[in-house]
Amino acid sequence: MLFSYISNVMVVLSALSVFSNPLLADSLPDQNSFKVIPELIPGVSNIDDKSAIPIMHAGLMPLAGDHTDKEEYFFWKFQKSDFDSPSIVIWLNGGPGCSSMDGAVLELGPLRVGADNKVHLNQGSWFTRADLLFVDQPLGTGFSQGNFEDYDTNLDEVASNFLQFLESYFTVFPEDLEKDLLLAGESYAGQYIPYVAKAILDQNKIENSVTYNLEGIFIGNGWIDPDTQSLAYLPFALEKNLVSKDNPGFQDLLKTHENCQKAINSVNSNNFSHPECEIIINKLIEYTKNTSEETPENEVCLNVYDYSLRDSFPACGMSWPSEIVNAVSFFSTEGVMEALNLDSTKLQPWRECNLDVQNTLTNENSKPSIHLFPELIDSDVSVFLFNGDKDLICNDRGVLDSLKGIQWGNSKGFSKETEHYYLVIKDSISGEETPAGYVLYDSGLTFISIANASHMAPYDQPFVTRGILDIFYNDIDLIENPNNDTLIISDAFLLEKLEDDEEDEEHEKNNKNAEKEHDNEEDDRHHSDEEEDEEGEESDDDNDDDDDDENDKHKRTRYAFVSFFSIGLLGVIFWYIIRQARQNTIQSILRNRKTNLDEQNNKTVSWTDSNDATPDVIFEQDFDPKGSSTRTKNGYTGVPSTDLDESFEMRDF
Predict the structure, then answer these.
(1) What integer pLDDT is reported at residue 99 of this predicted model?
(2) Which residue intervals make up region (Disordered) (predicted)?
């Protein structure tokens, strides 16, 4: 406890020294030095829609603070050329020690790398919702630079160095400081992100310091609680029929599971993780191998990133997805490093993961990041956890079991007041709606299970994962029904919303024109009345007939105006009713958690307490069982499966 307190103080003091340095701006490169010329990126010149080409900045950003050696993080930033987004998403991949450029060119970035070593537009990029900033960290990851002796050894050091990067970044790009800041990532970033978020909150408390508008964190298939998630491997494998009790190695698996539990229950146990727990996944892979002579070489073992696929041994998914080789080849292409403002003569070639970073980050005296969640939620930081349901190594059950152990919103785990939703994605062209998973929300924390997605959910389901931002922004449709409500996201929802806004503006314009015509009619009527009075003084006899004519005229005018106005008003009302029936937009359920907190005292947990039981929140969805035959995906072969109701980036198991 004392060590943790001292570490937190050191993080804050480090940040304070950074922000009080008036010479920082003069010591950093200017913004133009990070500018990327799009045409230098292979494939960009072939993009027909030039407005879709992002404004890019990239390069090595020196860390702020006093460093005896040069320490720099590589970043690649994307922003739209025709829209100034109010938000910026910082994306981190995991490992530890794996480059965030995986996320940039294989998952959610606007440019995906193909087998031809050229980039192509990623229609499912998060880029349409917010600016994107991909950062290689900690030191030694990807293109980031630093001496081995300076590599981070625990998560407090990771957070401290990242705050130094943020200070340098926002000094060079001050226009981004006012944007809403969203931290996102996957896998081991489930440890990075909460620690960085807490460091930001601590930084914001420092008087007269720069503050960041941290609004939310988004963790995909996160490694947030190592021991609890390790204990979920065997129950999850049994649920999904990946292993049976008849397996010759089942008793050994069960014993290994029990040894993990005993280590956790040890009186002297205060470790970040336990070796007894880490070997469960190794034995599960070993005992589920198929070594018969009839088995193809690429179907020997489970793919730990997508259990519906099989792979060769000992890879077992470690080289998945197959497009990883495209990324390696792309960053090795002549001219690419220079286009990203890197000197290829001074830097090592890009590699996806650095085992030295992993082996150095031992996290001695650090606690798993899940224990930081309550403080983040209490500080009004929205917490989103999303999981591809085909992932084995960071599976749904492990994440849900981990949440049972923490208290937030006056309840331990998900409470009886948890809001349950089916998740559906709508095709903007055909209008077809496809089941996409389910959503749980309770007091500031949202869990989303994504159907038919792997460990790298944005790679498999780009439109669905982008819809997570739509849920955060409340740009979704809500259909209410007796059992569970349904949230509808769209592959082009932002465009639909803009079109709706244009309709609103058009109707408002029509209403203003109607009011203006009404005022003009009133002016004409008063003017005509004055002329009638003057003519009446000249000839009373003639006015008898004229008055009758004028009265008839005014009656017709008033009748025409009233009819016009009434029809217009009824049209607006009718349009509004139709619009509401078509789009009942959820407004506060997933954002304003305080609206329900006052009524959540003394609530009981609705989850089952037994680790051997399936959580009772799993929805029964009518997915089309397309797994009845062997499935092949990018060179990986899937095992037959009808269980559709349901790369961890560590390089060694």
Answers:
(1) 97
(2) 500-552, 621-653
pLDDT digits (tens, 9 = 90+) for 38-74: 999 999 999 999 999 999 999 999 998 766 568 999 9
pLDDT tens figures, 192-240: 999 999 999 999 999 888 999 999 999 999 999 999 999 999 999 999 9
Closest to 416 measured CA to CA, from 440, 400, 397:
440
Alpha carbon distance 258, 265 (integer Å): 11
Model confidence, pTM: 0.77
Whether 2-211+326-371 shares its CATH topology with 379-389+403-491+587-615 is answered yes
C-alpha 16/C-alpha 208 separation (Å) is: 10
Q: Which one of 131, 150, 389, 391 is the catalytic residue?
A: 391
Enumerate the β-bridge partners of residue 120.
112
Residue type, 271: N
> In the predicted model, what is the mean pLDDT of residues 549-573?
64
Residue 35 tokens read as: 């500018």
Known catalytic residue: 460? Answer: no
CA atoms within 13 A on the CB side of 549: 7
For the question of residue 49 being annotated catalytic, the response is no
455 is catalytic: yes
Active-site position among 14, 100, 168, 187: 187
- CA 112 – CA 105 distance, rounded (Å): 4
- In words, the CATH class of domain 379-389+403-491+587-615 is alpha beta
* Catalytically annotated residue among 57, 455, 470, 641: 455
421: left (phi over 0), alpha (psi -120 to 50) or beta: beta
Rg over CA atoms, the chain: 30
Q: What does the domain layout of the chain look like in residue ranges?
A: 2-211+326-371, 227-315+627-638, 379-389+403-491+587-615, 492-532+556-586
Tokens 């496809």, located at residue: 434
